[in-house]
Specification:
The protein has 168 residues and is an all-beta fold. It is built from no helices and 14 strands.
């Protein structure tokens, strides 16, 4: 599909989308998407997405590059360079470069260069960057975690002024 597709309820494309796709409730695409994609409730792309993806509830794609806004959740298996914004949860396995910002939690198995900011929990197995939240967890941290509770098995440890260790 090239140019503009508007569906009162649903848009279903069995190939690629280039342009603008607006679905009253839902957009479903099996091929690559290079577009502005807006779904009243959700966008589900079975392949790669580049551009701006906005859903009232949920966005899902394989490889994402761009800006992804989900009312409740964004789920991208891999992220090249992106900003993920959600009301509750952002999830990705491999996040190369960018930022996850959510009201509740961010999960990235691998965060290359970037930041996680949440109202409650940030988790990254390996992170090169910055975490800001109530609870920040990382197996390997090369950067800074800021919050009342921070844990990293390997890497640098930062203690805020109120909780700083001293030699006395």
């Amino acid at each position: 599909m090239r140019s503009v597709q508007i569906g009162g309820l649903f848009n279903v494309v069995g190939g690629t989308v280039n342009g603008v796709q607006l679905g009253g409730l839902h957009n479903y695409v099996t091929g690559d998407v290079q577009a502005l994609q807006i779904g009243g409730l959700s966008n589900i792309n079975k392949s790669n997405t580049t551009g701006l993806q906005i859903a009232g509830l949920y966005n899902r794609t394989q490889l994402f590059n761009g800006l992804q806004i989900g009312g409740l959740m964004n789920n991208s298996q891999n992220v090249g360079m992106a900003l993920q914004l959600s009301g509750l949860v952002n999830y990705t396995r491999d996040f190369k470069k960018g930022m996850q910002l959510s009201g509740l939690s961010n999960i990235a198995t691998q965060l290359g260069k970037g930041a996680q900011v949440s109202g409650l929990v940030n988790y990254a197995k390996k992170i090169n960057g910055f975490q800001l939240g109530f609870l920040n967890l990382a197996d390997t941290l090369n950067g800074i975690s800021l919050g009342p509770f921070n844990y990293s098995r390997n890497g640098k440890h930062f203690y805020p002024y109120l909780f700083r260790k001293t030699s006395r």
